Amino acid sequence: MLEIRNLFVTYRDEPAVRDLSLTLGEGEILTLVGPTGCGKTTTLRAVAGLEHPSAGEIRIGDLRIDKDRFVPPEKRRTGLVFQDFALFPHMTVEQNVAFRLKDREPVDHWLRLLGLEGHRHAMPDTLSGGQKQRVALARSLAHGPALVLLDEPLSNLDASLKASLRWEIRDALKAAGVPAIWVTHDQAEALSVGDRMGVMQGGRLEQIGPPEDCFREPASRFVAQFLGEAAFLPGEHADGFVQTALGRYPAHGGERLGRQVDVLVRPDDLSVGPVEPGNGEIEWGQYEGETRLYGVRLREGPMLRVRVNHETHLQRGDPVEMRIAAGHPLALFAPEGR
Known about the structure:
Distance between the termini: 42 Å
Structural class: alpha+beta
Helix content: 10-25%
Number of strands: 20
Mean pLDDT: 93
CATH class of the largest domain: Alpha Beta
Largest sheet: 6 strands, mixed
């Protein structure tokens, strides 16, 4: 449905997207995530026809686009959903969704499916942010696009709405069977809604794959640190295991690295409990509601963060025993500077 080959997009002689290649299957949702200025929105705009490729090729179905063969946005059968909703303020919800449509059946279908039937005759300025985004999505899907492009669709909404609306949007895309690229800066959003995710930095695609693979087996330190809270514990690798200050554990990917490695550990990979004398002590603690986050200074090693149930109460200076509790092999990296 979509194939991008070696795409470059240049602004003022500076590449904003560099040698990017990916494919998108039928009905697949791909989330693109990365820091501000990494090229994810530029990639989306190039697919939509709002930016011209400097090099490379974009294929949407039978359409082929490159720097010498430009296809205007209206010819690409792509539906666009923006963070600012882009609704016509002088039109009702129904008129927005039906804009330039002769067939009313898809209009009624998506108004009903997205819970907008009761707002059919409402004006956009009377709607909540979540309702406006549903209207924008209904308008996009009612036109039968070959591809839907979503640019930060939840960034203008309250935090309380984001978790539920992300699933409503995902369910609607799946019901339509239409592939989609969903650009976001929110790691939790990207991990939860994408069938696959791509992580970008400096205009390049650092890693693409199932969200769980990107999180558990990051291709670089950047991906590891961008997707959640990451710390690196020195260790020695041999025979599929790594020896650390916290003990010996299974690990993968160390064969190419040599004996000295850094082990990726996240707060949820660790456990901690009060033990005298223990292998570390509490340096600080933060209450998070359902959980508590503690900083533990190891007696032999760095400070690590561990997340525990909110009922676990530890004080600064308490001796503790920290262990790796992950049920999966640990990811390994070459020590920095090597």
